Amino acid sequence: MVVSEKKKLKSIIAKKRILITGASGFIGNNLCQALNKKYQVVPKVLVHLSPIDNVRVREIKGDILNLASLKEAMKNVDVVVHCANNYDSDLNWRTSVLGTKNICEASLFCKVKKVIYLSSAAVYGYQLPPRVNEKSAYKKVKGDIYNQSKIEAEKIVRNYYQKKHLPMVIIQPTIVYGPGSIPWTIGPIIDIKNNNFFWVNESGGTANHIFISDLVKAILLAIAKDESLGNTFIISGGEVIKWKDFFKPYFSMLHHPIPEDLNSSSLRVKNALFPILHILKKIIHKSKISLLIPKRIKANLKQSYSQMENIRNFKQSTIVQQRFKYSSLFDIAKARRILGFKPKVSFKQGMTLTKKWFDKNKEAILNFEIY
Asked: Can you tell me the distance from the alpha carbon of 210 to that of 326, in angstroms, rounded to the nearest whole number?
C-alpha cells in the first residue's frame, strides 16, 4: 500500500464512530489496540461483565442478548464490529444466533451505516474440496456447536441484508494465532505442557492460518472501504502448511519432545492396556493399597491413566479427526481484489513474535485456566 493510500485509510477510519462487541476477547481487543495506536480512535465497546482495562475505550453497559441495551449503545454509531463469541456450548449458540439477530435489529433501528460480523471459515465444515472460496457451500458438522451457530448467524445477517437492506460485511477468518489466541496458541501450549497433545495420522492435513495483526488489518479495510458492503470475505494468511509444522514451534518454545502419532505401535499397545489401568485405578482408589504405593509410582500411574483417557476421547472425536485431516486451500482472492488485503506477516515471522510474547509471559501462560 503506497503512502497516500495509508493516509487515506487513516483519514476515513479516524472519522468513524465505532462500536465493538467482544472487545475483551482476543480479536476484539487487538482491534481496539490497533484503533488506539494507529488511528487515534477511541471506540465504544459493549461491556456486559468485565471491564476492558488494557486499551482506551468508551465503555457502554449492555448485553447482546438484550435488544433494548443494544439500541441504547448504538446511538450515534457509524460502524458496528460484532466480535462477541462464547466457548460455552449453550451460551455459544445464544451469543452467535440470538445475539447476532439482536445486533442486526438494533443496527437497523439506529441506522448504523455498516455492520461487520466476525464469523469463521469453520462454516464450510471439515470435509472440504481442494480449494474453498466464498461460493463454497455451508457444511454443518454433527455435534459441532461452533460450526452450526456460525452458519445460522451468517444466514441471519445475510437475510437482514437481502430483505431489510442491512449494510453488512461478513468476515470469515481461518485459524487465528498469535499472542493471546486461546484455541491456536495458549491451548496447544498448555496441552503440550500437560502431555495431552496428540498427532492424528502424523497430522498430515493442512493448516490455513493467519496472524492476528493481519486479520485486524482486514477488518480495518472492511470498515474503511464502501466496496466491502454486502460481501463475505475469507481471510487467511496466504500460506498453507502441514498441521505438524504449525504446532512444532510450540514444542520448541517449551523445549518439549515431539510426541508419537496416535496410530504408532507403542501408543496402540498403551491404548490396549487402558482397561487394565482403569481397573487398577478403581482398586487403588477404593482400598488401602494406595497408602503402600510410593508417591512417584502413584503419580506415574495417574499420568499414564490420564493420558490414555485423553487419547481415547481424542480418537473417538470425529470432529477433531476431520479438522486435522483435510488438505485444502482457503482462497483470499476476493479479499485481495475488493479490500486490497495483502497478508503481511509470514508464518515464521508470526511464530517469532509469538515466542517473544511467550518468553515474556511464560509463567502466566502456563498457569492460564482455559474456559
From this structure: 17
The pairing of strands 168-173 and 206-211 is unpaired
pLDDT range class, residue 186, cuts 50, 70, 90: very high
The rounded distance, in Å, linking the Cα atoms of 55 and 33 is: 6
User: Is residue 119 pLDDT above 60, yes or no?
Assistant: yes
Alpha helices, DSSP H, located in 15-88: 26-39, 67-73
Helices 265-272, 295-316: axis angle to 10 degrees equals 100
pLDDT at residue 281 in the model: 59
What's the whole-number mean pLDDT along residues 121-127? Answer: 94
Asked if 69 contacts 11 with a C-beta cutoff of 8 angstroms, the reply is no
User: Minimal CA–CA distance to 21: which of 76, 97, 87, 73?
Assistant: 73
Instruction: Identify whether the C-beta of residue 296 lies closer than 8 Å to the C-beta of residue 195.
Output: no
Structure-block grid coordinates of residue 202: 502424523
Q: How confident is the model over 48-85, as pLDDT tens digits?
A: 766 787 789 999 999 999 999 999 999 999 999 999 98
Round to whole Å and give the CA distance between 290 and 281: 10
User: The dihedral of CA 100, 104, 107, 109: what is its sign?
Assistant: negative
pLDDT in the model for residue 195? 80
Following DSSP, what letter does each residue of 78-104 receive, concatenated?
SEEEE-----SHHHHHIIIIIHHHHHH
Domain ranges of the chain: 3-178+207-240+326-345, 265-320
Burial 68-90 (b: 16+ CB within 10 A, else e): ebbbebbeebebbbbbbbbeeee
Grid cell listed for 370: 482455559
Query: 3-178+207-240+326-345, what's its fold?
Result: Rossmann fold (3.40.50)
User: How confident is the model over 291-302, as pLDDT tens digits?
Assistant: 566 667 666 666
| Of the candidates 23, 160, 31, the residue with the CA atom closest to the CA atom of residue 85 | 23
